[in-house]
Write a structure and sequence with these properties.
400 residues, alpha/beta, Metallo-beta-lactamase, Chain A, Rossmann fold, 7-stranded mixed beta sheet, 24 strands, binds MU-OXO-diiron
């Protein structure tokens, strides 16, 4: 039988790693896998915090049974109902028929809808508390981080925050599960990718949640994905990552996302990038939208203040992969970006016109003069690309 991992006296990790799934939510690549974290506290009463994806329920129950060591499970605390965490609730209820399920009003609706469970569900309010014995739990409703029922549970005795998806990362836990046991830097970029891909639309609710949490002394942050954060500097670091991302604040740098069929639009991107570098911008990331998963492009758009998009005209519209990327950007309600654009065509231009519509509808500051190229690079096009690169660099440097 598999064993749980002890985090502290009476407090165990019973989560699992997924190294099989190719795409999270069937959308976002998982080259380093992902963990589904679940935790248990053993006190006068026993409590489980979230479950795991049903595909891993066998491993999960082995660990849980081993942690309980013959005891029954009194409470399931549900911080989030997305099935990567709620998937094993039905099986859990069969195993522990008398378990009390703790969640908010919206949780209860989803527990009934997904798992047809409406008995023994206790509905808590923001600020409600539950005493397990030595360990006391306090519940904080944090709606829309990133579903309406999302909440966090704070264990007041040892100052443990069960944060749901918040502060989560892609990437499995390979041996060590606590930040002190591993190189936490390895997870930072995957935290940004997780946030930007999954939570990115909900900056304002995340800000409200951070405001609520700011009053708490945090010694442990136990997310549903990625490491358990325990070191003071790491807790500060990940809270600051979330704060920055949810305010849509970027660092100095430029993402140039382009589509290109035969290389002409790509040449424009190269010239713009060349001038950015000439002007002293060091973080310049070119993404070929057909080759690079949009997951990483979105991550980088969240990281950097500058965004330049280039597209050929395709069937009198934007290049399809650029259209798809713009839709992802719009969907995340991106703000606070400097935006430039360019495009190309062979016999009738449409891409730049459509990019102009996107720019007008965005909350971005439009930078420079858009460049539109017919067929292949002319000296005028070349100079116009340099000018666009220089305008972006100048704007970025004003913020230094
Ligand atoms: Fe990890 Fe929103 O589920």
């Amino acid at each position: 039988m598999l064993k749980p991992i002890k985090i502290k006296e009476d407090f165990y990790y019973v989560g699992v790693n997924d190294r099989t799934k190719a795409l999270f939510e069937n959308l976002w690549p998982l080259p380093k896998g992902v963990s589904y974290n679940s935790y248990v506290i053993l006190d006068e009463k026993t409590a489980l915090f979230d479950t795991v994806d049903i595909c891993y329920s066998d491993i999960f129950f082995q660990k849980l049974d081993s942690a309980l060591n013959g005891r029954s499970l009194d409470y399931l605390i549900i911080n989030h109902m997305e099935p990567d965490h709620s998937g094993s609730i039905g099986l859990l209820k069969n195993r522990f028929p008398n378990i009390q399920i703790i969640g908010n009003k919206r949780t209860a609706d989803m527990v009934k809808g997904f798992y047809n469970i409406d008995k023994d569900v206790t509905i808590i309010e923001d600020g409600s508390e539950l005493l397990l014995g030595k360990h006391n739990l306090k519940f904080y409703l944090t709606p829309m981080v990133h579903w309406p029922e999302t909440m966090m549970t704070y264990e007041t005795t040892n100052k443990i925050l069960f944060s749901g998806d918040a502060f989560g990362t892609f990437g499995t836990l390979d041996g060590g599960i606590i930040d002190a046991q591993l190189h936490p830097e390895r997870y930072y970029d995957e935290m940004v990718r997780y946030y930007s891909n999954i939570v990115g639309k909900f900056g304002s609710p995340v800000q409200k949640a951070l405001e609520k949490l700011s009053q708490l002394d945090l010694k442990y942050i136990c997310s549903t994905h990625g490491p358990v954060w325990t070191l003071d500097d790491q807790i500060k670091k990940i809270v600051s990552i979330y704060n920055k991302l949810s305010k849509y604040e970027g660092d100095e740098g430029v993402v140039i996302a382009y589509g290109s069929m035969y290389g002409h639009t790509e040449q424009m991107a190269e010239v713009i990038a060349y001038e950015l570098a000439q002007q002293g911008i060091k973080e310049i990331i070119l993404h070929n939208v057909s080759k690079r998963s949009h997951s990483y492009i979105i991550r980088d758009i969240f990281k950097y203040k500058g965004l330049i998009v280039g597209s050929p005209t395709y069937n009198n519209k934007l290049y399809p992969e650029i259209e798809a990327l713009l839709s992802k950007i719009e969907n995340r309600d991106m703000k606070n970006r400097y935006f430039g654009y360019f495009g190309s065509f062979t016999w009738a231009g449409a891409a730049v016109k459509r990019l102009a519509e996107f720019a007008d509808g965005s909350k971005f500051e439009i930078i420079g003069t858009p460049v539109e190229m017919k067929q292949a690079m002319t000296e005028d096009n070349y100079q116009a690309c340099l000018a666009l690169g220089k305008s972006m660099a100048d704007r970025l440097k004003q913020d230094r």
